[in-house]
Write a structure and sequence with these properties.
Elements lengths: L8 H24 L7 H6 L1
């Protein structure tokens, strides 16, 4: 993981949750497109 600067734990938690949500949405879209769930690069290329 990369180094993240956050003002406090609330901001750090929010940033982590945003990244987790983005990954979850990417996996969901891949499953809806019948692509392997962890091939997020192909989702961007489509």
């Amino acid at each position: 993981m990369e180094k993240v600067r956050a003002r406090d734990s609330r901001h750090l938690t929010h940033r982590f949750i945003r990244k987790l949500l983005a990954h979850t949405v990417g996996v969901f879209l891949n499953q809806a497109s019948v692509i392997h769930p962890l091939h997020l690069e192909t989702l961007v290329a489509v």
